[in-house]
Amino acid sequence: MNVVLILMGIACLQALIILPEPCDKLIVEAASQVLLETFNQGFDTFYLISLLTSTDFDASAGLLVQRAAALLPVIVESIDTKIKTSSKQRFNVILMDSEASLDLLSVLITKKNFDTFGNFLILLLSEAEAGDLCSHVFQVTAQYLIYNVNVLYRIHKSIASYTYFPYGTPGDHLTRMARWNTFMQAGFVSPKLHFPSKFKNFFGASLGVALFRTTTFMDFSYDAEDNIVNYRGVDGTLLKTIAQALNFTIRPIIPNNNQRWGTLNQNGTATGAMGLLLNGTVNLTLGFFGNNYLRQQYLTGTQSHYQTSLILCVTPGSAHGSFEKLLLPFQFNLWALFAAMFTIALFVIVLLQFFPKYVQHFIWGRMNRTPGLNLFQTTIGNPANPAPSRNFARFLLTLWMLATFVLRSAYQQIMFYNFHHSQNHSIVRDWDDFIASQYRIFVIPPERYLLDNLHDHIQRQITIIPTEQANATLQAIRYGFLRGARISYPESLYYQNLQVLNNGGPFYRQFGKRLYSYTLSVFFRKNSPLVDPFNGQIQPLVTYGFVEHWRRELLNRNLQEIIRTRMRRALATALSVPILSGVFELYALGMVGAMVAFLVELL
């Protein structure tokens, strides 16, 4: 196939060379010099595309083909004879002479077989209004995200070389088109690269960034004039680091109406940050931004810079009742063992009533007329009255007191811990419990796609809420006012529970099953040239652990601040009447029982 194409080029070459029109050798010499200094940069073929509307410049075109063919194979094309190649064209030499050629360029450049990251050398062979034509060429190429463009045209006795910087030229970030070099009879005046890198230095140009607050990943602060001046969090620090490395300024834009990520529809329309990105208001967006199939169709993301998991924050179990709190320190089997011990002791006391006195004295000791009451007294830690005098009786009493002492100490220790920590019944642990408990999953519109792959039974329990109600719903779930769940991620719950340690209140509870892994990226418009320079900065930051370090530093700094605050307070949680309500209720029941016994004795 390539042989056929080359032969076609030679045929066109012969047709062009025999034309008698005068030739502008100076611009041909300049173009040849560009080709000579560029052909060893990984290119194997030159594509010469003629968009000439006049035959006055055919001689120049023929000479250029002849010079180029001495370096590499040349494929000659035109707007009418576009050749379908097996690979995308990487080095294109385009000949133009008028505004009509510009219209042809607009039609040609939309073809799918051009590599937009390749090189485009454009020759304007007519001097008439070449400056305006050059400006219009850059407008067309920039519209299709083509930036490796070098335009040559004659200005009096020299050839001017112009190129386009999409985000500002050296020394002036507001200017886009720059005169890059000049060709004289002796060659180019400056030894600059003909296709300089446009994405290693943005020369202070501003890039629009759609952003919003997301816990642990994106936060920012304002100055006195209500301008965003600092960025924090994993994504915030990443943005600052890349901006410094690529030398651009951040122009932050927050989506209207708290739309955050926004929604993306099948037809390509979007709201929120994605809407700002697609309509060209911003250049990029980030802030806990994940990927899915629909986003891949309309957006382009960098390599993943962080991986986390999606989880559910669920309603805590109901609070324990007053008597439940009294029973909490021991499990049922331990309470049953204690009850059995006490019952057996009472049974022995009752049984000994039928034995001779000397046996009773041997077991209880002399003068012990109320062994049952003494059993109760020693169980709760009071001394026996009177104390036994016989060795065996003292031995039995000592064993009982040691056993009850261990039980009382363990009970008091665990009870003290429970009084100072929020205790609730168990939360739902698996999907069966979740479905059986009729928990609702409350999601805002941008989050709905995250649950598309869940089982149909779970899909029926999804409720979409307005974005502005997201935080209120989460707090209602946290306090148990609303039975359900909200989508979250471990870093967020950890950070928020650290705040709870400092400010008080119930903890955020995590559902026992994670949804799935979730990778984060920076997103741009489709085929944006910013993807490669951002990837070049992100890759070493991930490889060498900087991103993970930022996450740990943020969470550890927050934890250290909380520890310092709690040390300044230096006070344990004070016990209160509600905490001890079970004890007072038990005391009240005892008083009622005593009153009933007193009334019975009076009768």
Automatic annotation (TrEMBL):
Domain Putative ionotropic receptor ligand binding: 82-201
Entries under InterPro entries matching the protein: Insect_Ionotropic_Sensory_Rcpt, LBD_receptor
Record's GO cellular component terms: plasma membrane
Chief location bin: membrane
UniProt topology in membrane: Multi-pass membrane protein
Keywords assigned: Cell membrane, Glycoprotein, Membrane, Receptor, Signal, Transmembrane, Transmembrane helix
Record-annotated membrane-spanning stretches: 273-294, 332-355, 392-411, 570-600
Signal peptide span: 1-15
Subcellular location as annotated: Cell membrane
Annotated Pfam families: LBD_receptor (PF24061)
Record's protein name: Putative ionotropic receptor ligand binding domain-containing protein
